[in-house]
């Protein structure tokens, strides 16, 4: 916020707080949107999503997960956030408790509260590489009905290991929890394997996966995504759409269909800048102890541990802004577990990113007492 005021007042600030690509939606996708709107797909569109789009999503999920999936497992939503809200509406009643993992994407507690339920945070700790631990979930599971997870993770950039995913599934089965899995960054994997919650057979009948075109196709403003789940839950969610959003504009659905069918190169091109910058960051951070990154295996963020400087994440972010004119997010703004960290979004051009990260490292080093 303070950074935005400074920018508005004309002070040049390098903004590393924004979770959005530095490119716009591909013109080919926009051309299709325009073409389909001109062709008349501007009336009420199919509320669950067009058959063609739901089929394309199902085919994509089948190809990527190996799990046979049909359009009856898919409902189209106006973006991932609407999907998160709808998913929690489906699995929680007012007064229930919904679990989520801290550090968390900022909307999570409000999303649970929004359906009249009580959010309860479970810490994923830096010493575990921010991987949630089954024992911590189990310890908080009493009286809860759902667990919300996110991998690849915003804000940490961590990808849950297959072992973590399996232990989460086991815990959800043991404690009778619905699993809501936010996988909006699933095309941004830099290292290791991403196991979708949909692949966890034991819990598939109690799982809802939320996904979106926002991050994978740089379509943040188009507001389109989907929920994947058991047929009977999807049927309820379609009912919910009828009574809330009444669907997503037809020409946006057509543009999403076009994007999904455009081939993997388009997606790879959209992910490529983050892959490059993440490689640059690994290189730059290899030579310092003052700022250490959490394993940055996915998504468009680095979570830097700056505890060696003796500052809080907030103290560090404020001083960095004042002295270096670089804006990052304090870890504390994503929950208690990320205290003493700052989140760096890799969402500016390569040269500027490398310069800014270099300056952040020098700044952290200057604050860090030297060892003996
Ligand atoms: N989940 C996570 C983890 C996110 O970072 C975001 C967007 N920043 C969303 C969901 C929502 O994305 P959208 O509604 O644009 O699909």
Automatic annotation (TrEMBL):
Looking up SUPFAM superfamilies in the UniProt record yields:
PLP-dependent transferases (SSF53383)
Task: Write down the Pfam families for this protein, in alphabetical order.
Answer: Aminotran_1_2 (PF00155)
Its Enzyme Commission number(s) read 2.6.1.-
UniProt cross-references to Gene3D superfamilies, sorted A to Z: Type I PLP-dependent aspartate aminotransferase-like (Major domain)
Provide the reaction this enzyme catalyses.
Answer: L-aspartate + 2-oxoglutarate = oxaloacetate + L-glutamate
Q: Which cofactor does it need?
A: pyridoxal 5'-phosphate
Aminotransferase class I/classII large domain segment(s)? 12-360
Give the InterPro entries listed for this entry.
Aminotransferase_I/II_large (IPR004839), AspAT/PAT-like (IPR050596), NHTrfase_class1_PyrdxlP-BS (IPR004838), PyrdxlP-dep_Trfase (IPR015424), PyrdxlP-dep_Trfase_major (IPR015421)
The keyword Transferase is assigned to this record: yes
**Similarity-based family:** Belongs to the class-I pyridoxal-phosphate-dependent aminotransferase family.
Q: What is this protein called?
A: Aminotransferase
Organism the protein comes from: Candidatus Rhodobacter oscarellae
